Amino acid sequence: MKTNTLRIGIVIGLSAAASAAFSQTAPASNPYRVLKTTQTMGTGGIDYVYADNDNRRLYVPRGNQVLVFDLDSLKSVGAIPNARAHGVAVDPKAQHGFCSSSPVVMWDAKTLETIKTIEVQGRPDGIEFEPMTERIYVFSHSQPNATVIEGKDGSVAGTIDLGGAPEQAASDGQGHLYVAIEDRDNIAVVDVKTLKVTAHYDLAGKGGGPAGLGLDVKNRILFAMCHDPQTCVVLSADDGKILATLPIRRGTDGGGFNPATMEAFSSQGDGTLTIIKEISPTSFEVEQTVQTKPRAKTCTLDTKNNQILLITTEPAPGAASATTPPPGGERSGRRGRGGGPGMLDILVVGR
To answer: What is the CATH architecture assignment of 57-294?
Structure first.
């Protein structure tokens, strides 16, 4: 009787251990991969890609226009003309779209009809919607570093000196905007009510040239994707304390965080996408490195499907390869917005 009881206990224990092992390794059995790729012929350089999740549209500035695709089918649904832009942001309440061009173009997010153009100073590059104040931040590597625009009517609310060259930004929706300052190796913290910088979080030599930025709003954690070294610096959004550093790959220029999966991600020009798992607010690991395509260095999140979309260009069949900049590298192709005829590739990465 005791022997049978012991045997049963052993079997139960082994089953429980196997079940626990399976639960721990389950994500690896269902890895991220490229689910879909589309190609569209066109002309001109690209930079940021943006998903308007509410209206299920994908925006890709290219050349002298902003291309618009259906976010689910990736079929073309139109374009915003006369908009030589780097990025796009949409105010979901006002249903107004904006692109970081000079001048900034404002359009109806439902009809795609242009409403007005807005004169701004500097050299517009990145762009971000801030939901608490319902304003659009247009970033520039020259002064003024940020021009703040009212989402409802396109009027300019003010400008901000960020103390350096801004790249990607992230809002906590609670009054703070975090901005990666590429040439100063820090994260600027902006009070969105006063339009003042309240702090600079120094990356303390752990990472240089931050470009992509992810934010876990619930746990107040920032993920700064850095060029040199090729590192994700994880830090507290409240005081800038560095929590961890993790390796990424070469040529990062975009990143983000998905609260549904508790994963940060960084897209790299060497043709990789790094997925970082937040196991707990104090524990992080590189979960996977996904092979994408060379120069696919910016990305956006489809929150409905928990998928990451990336863009790149490649020469048209028979065209000279010199029209395409080299993959990876620090800030490779970052300002180069020229380009002859070539294919625009849209990649969808998911499970």
So the answer is: 7 Propeller (2.130)
